[in-house]
Amino acid sequence: MKKNPIIPFALIAVLGIIAMIIISAVGVNEQDKIANGGGETEEAADPQTLIQNCTGCHGGNLEGATGPNLQNIGDTYSVEEIQEIIVNGREDKGMPGGLVSNEEAAVLAEWLAEGQGGE
User: Fold this and answer.
1) Alpha carbons 77 and 86: distance in angstroms, whole number
2) What is the pLDDT of residues 50-98, one digit of tens each?
3) Nearest in space to 118 (alpha carbons), one of 78, 67, 58
4) Please, which pLDDT band fits residue 3 given cuts at 50, 70 and 90?
5) Rounded to the nearest 5°, which phi and psi values hold at 16?
6) Which SUPFAM superfamilies does the protein's record reference (predicted)?
7) Which of 101, 109, 113, 118 is deepest in the core (most CB within 10 A)?
């Protein structure tokens, strides 16, 4: 019996079409989750997750690196002052603003003011 040389290509095409349908279905579900505000917002409010935006300059344990030590920043600044610095940055210290949203800045400021960064 002679094999048809087109059959392997046809099978690959069918598998590709099935893969595209499955990926599209998953993408539509993810789009619905994002549109409904699900998923990342709860995780984003976790200060332990948000602080990862700061560790590049302030060190992995916030002990200070190119940026200052934040472990006891609550002894120096109030929650409102810390939040203002996070939101607007400080050009004189090389701190850029806008790295997180205002809501995330409020969560981080409260967490840092409570001294949680020093744990």
Assistant:
1) 12
2) 888 888 888 888 998 888 899 999 999 999 999 999 999 998 888 888 8
3) 58
4) confident
5) -65, -40
6) Cytochrome c
7) 109
